Amino acid sequence: MNRLFSEFMVQKLGIEEDKVVELNQLLYSMAGLKAIGYEFDNDEYHRYVHGRLPYENLKPDPVLRNLLLSLPFRKLVFSNGDDVHVMKALKRLGIEDCFERIINFETLNPKTNEAEVSCVTGHLSENPVICKPTEVAFEKAFDIAQLNPHKTLFFDDSIRNIQTGKVMGLHTVLVNSG
């Protein structure tokens, strides 16, 4: 995923390759790029980055499916990915019907009739892109799902998301993404 994000920065935004690693660590995501003034279409970003992921490596996981279905708790997906990416991954794993709700990029950033969100260096726009690991994204997800963070177990493969989750009162588990 980081490789595809870096390629997007070079090929679509014209950022010099030797600056990509530093910017990637500093900004972390499309929200960071927009916050410092880079303009691009959100859908194009998702198609470029997620459209090139090796989904064929994801296989149905009946053990995971049975485990999820056996748990007597609410289960939700909280992802920075778009609808297409999240559903494709869940379907490939055979777990698309194991969750009560999916909170993703479109949920946190509904399209409006206004022009694309723009930011000026040092000043966030009135409508910045909202995604993990920002506290705003977590607060919005809690509100949408009517969750009490102190009674919620949060699994993620990003240490930044786990750190924010802890700050927000979640019980957290860092999972291996490999």
UniProtKB/TrEMBL annotation:
Pfam families xref list: Hydrolase
Q: What InterPro entries does UniProt report for this protein, alphabetically?
A: HAD-like_sf, HAD-SF_hydro_IA, HAD_sf, Pyr-5-nucltdase
Protein name, entry field: Haloacid dehalogenase-like hydrolase superfamily protein
